[in-house]
Design a protein that fits this description.
By secondary structure, this protein is an alpha+beta fold. It is about 55% helix and about 15% strand. It contains nine helices and twelve strands. A five-stranded antiparallel sheet has the order 2-1-5-4-3, covered by helices on one side.
Length: about 475
Amino acid sequence: MKFFWKLYFSIMVITMSCFSIGSYMLIESGFHATLEREVENAYHENDIISSILNNLFFYDISFKYIVDVEYMINFLEDITIQNDTNILFCLRNTEGKIIYMDGSFSNKDHFIDELTIKKQCYRIVKEKGHYYIYTTKPFSDEIFVENKREITSVFHNRDEQFQILLFYSIILLMISAIFIYIVTRWLVSPIKNLSLITKKITLDNNFEPIQIKGDDEIAQLTKDFNVMSDRLLTSMNEIQENAEKQSLFVGNFAHELKTPLTTIIGYGDMIRSKRLPEEQIIHYADHIVKEGKRLESLSMKLLDLIVLKNHDFTFLKVFMPDFLKGIEEEFFISKKDIEVLIDIEDGYVMLEPDLMKTVIINLLDNASKATDYHGKIEIMGKKVKNGYTIIISDNGRGMPQEEISHIMEAFYMIDKSRSRIQGGAGLGLAIVKEILHVHHAKIYFESHLDQGTRITLDFEEEYDDER
């Protein structure tokens, strides 16, 4: 059963139960109050009879009744008690037998034994569809006065009230069914809205917050739901971000494998295919070992940088001419068709060498891909005020101005077909951006179609110490 119907029938049952029980208790309380008044009236009638009988007899000095029972019975049968009320009564002896009766009484139905506890008592008896109150009171040590009062109207009034209650209960049931249905729909509507929003989240990933109305429990539930959905969205974004980080790490690592592997393969092929002097073989082997170690170190640093967001790297004071010339020699060893111009001024910069080497190699790789055969790439290093600048420029294809703002986004490629042919994945500049951020360095692009591209790296600090 739906919550709406549970709430609807619950309110109906509670409403009708409260109305019925309350009305029943009201009718019963009125009935008992009326019945108590009738009992008081019956006691009063009993007192009237006793008072009349008292006037017919005398008291002795000790105020005890002087009663001759036979005389009293004969006397009562010969006279009529003068009173203004139509009171039915009888006199009973100590055994409960009737010794005088004015009305209909029975020898069997008496409750004189109850007088051992109370001096005056009553009981209600139903006779042939009528209800009567019988009250008994001792008149003397040997005589008891019992009177009879009809109270049928009291019970009939109660039965009529119950019939009226039933009639109005049916009317109330029909009227309340309509109003409770409307109220229940109004109460359940915020919950239905929550259900619809939950479905949107499930089907469409729509995390729009729900408008909060009022300050009741439903409003608090809506507020809590908004907080939960916001946290859920944050968690999903974090999960997605972590997945993207892992994907970016795998892609960047694969991307960064190319250059050192190319160097390793190039030197290894030279050692294998040519007869070289022992000194040159040692030199090439040394390059292979260095690139292998750099590759091992670079993998862990990329993991820290991209996936773990750990920027606690050890920075070293690097002499820029040696650093840049070493990268140039390794990178262009297999690119004999590109003219390389180098103009590097002396200067020191605090760097993480492996990561910054990745930056320079990525920029040189992009420049070499952008130039056709017999292209030209220029590497410049200049000391500037409070810093050091590296400029890498080429005379290649260049880029449209509208593309420059997007080139550092992960997986973004200007010419996708050419990038696939050349083995690109659009990850190089994304990792460059991360590494430069760690170094607090800035990068600027200046490019024109069919004229080439100029990339400028600005480092904040420069060291003029001698080597």
